[in-house]
Amino acid sequence: MNENRIKALSGKDLRNILKMEDCIDSMGNAFAALYRREVDVPLRTAIDMEPDNGGALFMPVYSSSISRVGVKTVIINRDNPARGLPFIHAMVQIFDSSTGAPVALMDGEVITAMRTGAVSGLATKLLAKDNAKIAAIIGTGAQGETQLEGVCCVRDITTAYVFDLDIARAEDFAARMSKHLGIKVVVAQSSEQLTEADIICTSTSSTKPVFDDVYIKRGTHINGVGSYRPDMAEIPAQTLQRAKVVVDQRQGCLAEAGDLVQPIKEGIFSDEIIHGDLGEVVTGNIVAREDDEEVTVFKSVGIAVQDLVTADLALKLAESMGGGQEIIL
Ligand SMILES: NC(=O)c1ccc[n+]([C@@H]2O[C@H](COP(=O)([O-])OP(=O)(O)OC[C@H]3O[C@@H](n4cnc5c(N)ncnc54)[C@H](O)[C@@H]3O)[C@@H](O)[C@H]2O)c1
After folding, report:
1. Spacing, Cα 141 to ligand 1 middle (Å)
2. What's the gap in Å between 98 CA and the centre of ligand 1?
3. Domain spanning 5-111+305-328, CATH architecture
4. Torsion-angle region of residue 284: left (phi > 0), alpha (psi -120 to 50) or beta?
5. What is the architecture of the domain spanning 119-302?
6. pLDDT tens for each residue of the chain, 329 residues long
7. The whole model's pTM is what?
8. Phi/psi of residue 131, each to 5°?
9. Mutation probe of ligand 1 site: the residue of 164, 167, 234, 306 with most atoms within 8 A of C-beta
10. Atom of ligand 1 nearest to the CA of 301
């Protein structure tokens, strides 16, 4: 009987081996491959698990450019936080697409957080002002951490203001992240501090815009990752109307991102105003920022190829550095 040796990587293994700057480089290759149509990303499949008060999402992807095919499975359970268990469990499986052999199995939460930070890092590298110094993070959960890491990898950030409805969570975030990144990270005292920000990341679960357009100065770059359903929103329509808007993928964002779906429905924004996909910017097929006065927005809902390239990078690093465990199937 045929046996397959595969690598199993825990969240702890992944945190040890994955570096944000490497993830950002891999993300650039992934979006270029997506633009060249070397990636097949079918729509994700969802199962509603009402009797268990949860649901499951299966996100398949094939990339011929890295000879990998895989799937991320995310299981949501709404009763879990009250039981002291995570709201979401996730796992990524990848296979060698040239032989079909399974090659790795890994924790999906760390992969998700790293790839979501990396795509915002890539967008920031391409779209933010070169001399950006002040960042603001709205939403201080797991995504907020990697949003700040991604931004700090591509610009010389000196100060980050953080905002969260949960003040204790924001304070804890500020203490941990200032130590981790060696920059000043402070809980914002008022919305007015947003006027100082050159780069803003929104990573909340909000259903209403999380800032007012009056606080957004000219030249600001915004990464919006939180709203991934039509009923969710973080960015006000007034900001979108005056911004150069780049999306991770037009089809997904127009179907899922409430930030775009809601103002389009209300007739105050149009899909025709969207500047383009990140892959078009990465490959130089459309221009990025044109001057220091433009407001730029990068809106992402997440694409499975981000998980695939990040998992593939983790596997390569684990093979060269000797991390994780080998299991036989
Ligand atoms: N675009 C993507 O690829 C992608 C990937 C992963 C997660 N997400 C989404 O990003 C969001 C954040 O994920 P997370 O895992 O960090 O979640 P989380 O629930 O751990 O953290 C979200 C934080 O946002 C805060 N918040 C909610 N509404 C707010 C508001 N109006 N103003 C300020 N703070 C507010 C909450 O108090 C919480 O601390 C979720 O909606 C998640 O589904 C998107």
Report:
1. 6
2. 37
3. 2-Layer Sandwich (3.30)
4. left
5. 3-Layer(aba) Sandwich (3.40)
6. 789 999 999 999 999 999 999 999 999 999 999 999 999 999 889 999 999 999 999 999 999 999 999 999 999 999 998 999 988 999 999 999 999 999 999 999 999 999 999 999 999 999 999 999 999 999 999 999 999 999 999 999 999 999 999 999 999 999 999 999 999 999 999 999 999 999 999 999 999 999 999 999 999 999 999 998 999 999 999 999 999 999 999 999 999 999 999 999 999 999 999 999 999 999 999 999 999 999 999 999 999 999 999 999 999 999 999 899 999 99
7. 0.96
8. -95, 25
9. 164
10. 1
